[in-house]
Amino acid sequence: MSSQPFTVVITGAASGIGAAISQQLMAVPGKNLILLDRQADTLAELAATAPPGVVVETLAIDLTNTEQLTSGLSPLLADNSIHELVISHGIADENQLDQCEIWDKVLLTNLTSVQRLLAVLEPRLADGASVVIVSSILGLIGKKANSAYCASKHGLLGLVKATALDLASRRIRVNAVLPSWVDTPMLRREVRRQADLTGIAEADMLRRIKKRIPLRSMVEANDVAHAIQFLLSAQSRMITAQSLVIDGGDGCGL
Ligand SMILES: NC(=O)c1ccc[n+]([C@@H]2O[C@H](COP(=O)([O-])OP(=O)(O)OC[C@H]3O[C@@H](n4cnc5c(N)ncnc54)[C@H](O)[C@@H]3O)[C@@H](O)[C@H]2O)c1
Q: Is the pLDDT of residue 1 over 90?
């Protein structure tokens, strides 16, 4: 049995789904957490909620900057391996086809930075480690004014499948979760924006979203985090290269 601490790295940890999985894993005894995000203050507040005895370290960085990532993570990891990796950071800027700056920013943040992160961390992953990447239902379907976001989230699924094959000989598993509307700050920003554009009240917009979901409830960040916990755990030991949709049945038909 290894004497190394059981180390978990989570990106996008300051908000939404990343914060929810961080909180859930803090409650599991024996895990050391390294939380990454660009929001330093929120990260520090989250780390301060850790129960006594749980080691939580934070690294406030822009994950699109590979140099910052490499130099920032090395001292935190020291000689330790990573047993679980959750990649949840992302942005959801809308774009028209000719808005190349937005395209570049979204692809860099949501796709390229994930590949860079995996490239930097691959040698540090323990044999048998589990990696979960947060894609989106928009990794399977399209949405108007979202070509960059959709391309980035579709791209993640290819990255997951191929990387799962690359790492399978070390029993490292790589899976994706594909949530639809999740009630997080990202969603609330989008709803506020749509409300401003259409004149429909925010509460009405949320009601409309809820109404079309067969299970009649918004997906919460904790729902996604529970699915991530399952994919991280040994209970899913024969599941790799897969995409798990979490949408309350939204996508299953009319
Ligand atoms: N909320 C939804 O409806 C929804 C649906 C499907 C998929 N997703 C995906 O889930 C993931 C988490 O989204 P969320 O809803 O929790 O959003 P969120 O905005 O609440 O959290 C995203 C986090 O990522 C961080 N981040 C973004 N770019 C970064 C960068 N360059 N460097 C460091 N940190 C960065 C932000 O600071 C933030 O803390 C995203 O990948 C998103 O695309 C969200």
A: no
